[in-house]
Amino acid sequence: MSDEIDTSEEYQEELSKMVVVCNHADPDSVMAALVMAAAIAATGDQVLFFVQPGAARILAKGGLEKYQGLKGQPDPLDLFSAIQVLDGRIILCELGLPICDMKAEDLVDGVEVMMASTFLFEAEGAKMVFSY
């Protein structure tokens, strides 16, 4: 058995991965998920922001604007932008498209569409999961 510490990029990435799942489109869920995802990204950890079909419409062009101006809350567009700028991944469960009668071109730029099973492989090794 070796006493060497694995410092490979793959190992470091796994150590610093966190998941935020947004299940619902109500303002409390959406804003809590965005705040947490942006905070994780700001710490330097990789964030996987996974949006379930119940919240899929927030990822449509113009979808986050209805959450602007909520009392005491930051601007959701700023939070979303921060996640992207800080290399966070924003992923929509592919079932969200047909359930919400949307197409991939309806989504905000940079959103990935993925099967839930594929996402589980992407999320493997995450050190924390937050669900809203």
Give the SSE map:
Elements: H1 9-15, E1 17-22, H2 27-42, E2 46-51, H3 76-85, E3 89-93, H4 96-99, E4 111-114, H5 116-123, E5 128-131
Parallel strand pairs: 1-2, 1-5, 2-3, 3-4
Could you describe the 3D structure shown?
This protein is of the alpha/beta class. The chain has a single domain, classed as DsrEFH-like (Hypothetical Protein Ychn, Chain: A), CATH 3.40.1260. Helix content is 34%, strand content 19%. The protein is built from five helices and five strands. It has helices at residues 9-15, 27-42, 76-85, 96-99, 116-123; strands at residues 17-22, 46-51, 89-93, 111-114, 128-131. It has a five-stranded parallel beta sheet with strand order 4-3-2-1-5. β1, α2 (27-42) and β2 (46-51) form a beta-alpha-beta unit. α2 (27-42) runs parallel beside α3. It is globular. The model has no long low-confidence stretch (mean pLDDT 92).
- The top level CATH class name: Alpha Beta
Proportion of helical residues: 25-40%
CATH topology: Hypothetical Protein Ychn, Chain: A
The rounded Rg comes to: 15 Å
Give the CATH H-level superfamily. DsrEFH-like
Main attributes?
single chain, 132 residues, alpha/beta, Hypothetical Protein Ychn, Chain: A, 5-stranded parallel β-sheet, 5 helices, 5 strands, 19% strand
In short:
It contains five helices and five strands; from the N terminus they run H-E-H-E-H-E-H-E-H-E. By secondary structure, the protein is α/β, with parallel strands linked by helices.
